[in-house]
Amino acid sequence: MLIRRAADIRPSEITSETLYWNRREWIAAAGAIGVAAMSPTSLSALGAARQQGPVARGTPYGLQPNDKPTPWEDVTNYNNFYEFGTGKDDPAQNAQEFTTRPWTVKVDGFVTKPADYQLEDFLKPHKLEDRIYRHRCVEAWSMVIPWRGFSLSEMLKRAEPTSQAKFVEFTTLLDPRRMPGQRSSVLDWPYIEGLRLDEAMHPLTLMVNGVYGRDLPNQNGAPLRLHVPWKYGFKSIKSIVRIRLVEKEPVNTWKVSQSSEYGFYANVNPEVDHPRWSQATERRIGEFLKRKTLMFNGYADQVASMYTGMDLRKNY
Ligand code: MTE
Prior knowledge:
By secondary structure, the protein is of the alpha+beta class. The protein contains ten helices and 13 strands. Ligand MTE is lined by residues 79-83, 137, 172, 191, 220, 233-234, 236-239.
């Protein structure tokens, strides 16, 4: 698969490893933008970096020493979003005209405060954060992405789940007029995903509305998507219109499509192969050599305890 790259993208656009690894420097660089008394050299350096395109920013979560943010060009041109086509570059091409305003989000099911929100009201109570996460697709490629969003747990707490709520089900918009891929039967529409309530409440589970400090481009799941960094990418549902608290395990789209290949849990696990390929290694987009895949995509310290006692070969 050919990855489109902007001819004029320069390495200097991508924040250097030293810069993003050193939080103090991050803060210093961010702070420096607002300070009037800067040396002409540093001012022009920052100005140049800003003019060239978005610079990755945010707090690194679970990054490995050799991780660096995947360039914007790849993050926004190498996508899986079957509502806009099955090719990796289809979403960037076919989602350009997709309108995401007005947008409503329904929160319902076993909650004491169900509501239909306009997107702006849904986002309003939350302080948006920039967080740099690892992203591993079930197809054995990976990226490092600076998302902008807030912990889903904050939103769920406001809705007040009742004791019957055991899982959270997420639904993507169903509108074949606006999402041309839904006119084909490649998947069972609308796209549905689910998490166990404790997974949804985990502080790493991010409700995302931006990337690289900008509002989400349509191809990345505008205006609202999920990112669950220790799970294969298909759990990170895009263009969400409904969040429903339920009692039983939701029937997720990929499990309906191929239950022998895609389970409900979908935790990244180098020891459990996909029936058609190994999950032991992955190709970082933009790199040539393969990397070893890490258990829970490198987030084992934070999340493994949620699966104590579970057979992860059976619950793939
Ligand atoms: N959400 C919807 N609604 N439709 C999709 O086809 N693809 C999933 C996930 N969310 C998908 C989706 C898959 S397989 C992956 S790997 C990620 O989105 C890709 O997210 P990205 O394009 O931002 O990297």
